[in-house]
Write a structure and sequence with these properties.
This protein has about 400 residues and is α+β, with helices and mostly antiparallel strands. It is about 25% helix and about 35% strand.
């Protein structure tokens, strides 16, 4: 059979059309499925009870401090304590040479004996003259002189007794004793040193270290902020004098025992604009030493409806304002500018910008562009857990 040219052209066109149709069907079948929305980890905000605390710098101060000074002068014969040891109230610390004070005491006692000896005849004479003047045997003037002599002799006895007591006290002062119990520091004098009564330089210093004071400073701005929160009902006071206080050392470790707030100064320091708060801490192991720098954690009050957002869920906008990303009702990302007043643990206390029930994004923020649709899963769930069903496959064409 001989095929003519027109017939050949028609066959070629049909062959090319079938090839294009097959290629089109293959391309339709190979089209990728649309990408699912990105997955983000969220938490749902719920009001909760939060204890509001503030951390303030402070210094440790001893509960009692006593500087040991001599009350009489003389040569130090002996030091009777070990430097850095614990001493008790009334314990002997130094011994001053008592020789001259012992002699003065003996002299005062002798003077008292002499005065008492002079008192006896003066009393007898006054009694006789009292009887004689009644019968006009002596003049009234002589009787008056006898009575005056009796009073003078009695006064000399009292004076001598006071001198004896003074000499006894001075002799007792030659043994310098601890005025309080506590830990004593280094001695500033040695045996053989000459000391004087009430000298400016202390011989040693005793500090009572259990319990101890911790004096912290708080700015007036923080006090006003707390009062404002109390007035608005955002914070419930627990009673200042019952507020527990915790301590944190410079290395960040927490002191194991809890202290109490004793009082706050009523005067503001004009140079710093702050007030001083005094707290009292037990110190049985003497971990707290005078002058040590610490940070006191004070409980200011309680917020019954606090909204806490983990710090990883809060970022900053170009203006520096804190903001959070929220998944809205239509699963679209919404940026929210918030007002965060303070940190509580690893969370921010949010006062404005968020409400209970909001879903705040904590994970996948880099994929959460404002206005995009996302798939919200509870924060901390395994990746892909509870993933949505796959999109239906595209219809295949022949």
């Amino acid at each position: 059979m001989i095929i003519t040219a027109p017939v050949k052209s028609i066959a070629l066109v049909l062959l090319l059309g079938g090839t294009l149709l097959t290629t089109g069907c293959s391309r339709q079948d190979a089209a990728p499925a649309p990408a699912p929305p990105p997955e983000v980890g969220v938490i749902t905000l719920q009001p909760q009870r939060a204890v509001l605390t503030t951390e303030l710098p402070g210094r440790v101060a001893p509960h009692l401090v006593a500087e040991v000074r001599p009350q009489v002068g003389g040569i130090i014969q002996q030091r009777l304590f070990a430097e850095g040891s614990e001493v008790r109230a009334g314990q002997a610390l130094y011994q001053i040479d008592p020789a001259t004070y012992r002699a003065a005491f003996a002299s005062a006692r002798a003077a008292l004996s002499r005065a008492e000896a002079n008192l006896a005849p003066a009393r007898l004479k006054a009694e006789r003259f009292r009887e004689l003047v009644a019968i006009k045997a002596v003049s009234q003037q002589e009787d008056d002189d006898a009575q005056a002599a009796l009073l003078q002799a009695a006064a000399e006895v009292e004076s001598a007794r006071a001198a004896v007591e003074t000499a006894r006290i001075n002799l007792d002062y030659t043994g310098i004793k601890a005025p309080i119990s506590g830990r004593i520091g280094r001695s500033t004098v040695t045996t053989g040193a000459l000391v004087t009564a009430n000298q400016p330089a202390a011989l040693a210093t005793i500090q009572q270290l259990d319990p101890v004071y911790v004096d912290v400073t708080q700015s007036t701005a923080e006090l006003l902020r707390l009062k404002e929160s109390l007035a608005r009902g955002l914070v419930k006071g627990e009673g200042a004098m019952q507020a527990p206080v915790r301590l944190r050392f410079e290395n960040g470790t927490l002191y194991p025992l809890t202290g109490t707030l004793k009082f706050a100064e009523v005067t503001v320091d004009q140079s710093t604009g702050s007030v001083t708060l005094r707290t009292l801490f037990p110190n049985p192991e003497q971990l707290l030493l005078p002058g040590m720098f610490v940070r006191a954690v004070l409980e200011e009050g309680v917020s019954e409806q606090a909204l806490l957002v983990p710090q990883r869920g809060v970022t900053r906008d170009p203006a520096g304002r804190p903001m959070a990303f929220v998944v809205g009702a239509d699963d679209k990302v919404e940026p929210r500018v918030i007002k965060a007043s303070r940190t509580i643990g690893d969370s921010w206390l949010v006062e404005d910008g968020l409400k209970a029930g909001d879903r705040v994004i904590l994970e996948g923020i880099q994929r959460a562009r404002p206005g995009t649709v996302v798939r919200a899963v509870p924060f901390g769930s395994p990746p892909g857990g509870g993933a949505p069903a796959p999109a239906p496959a595209a219809e295949k064409k022949p």
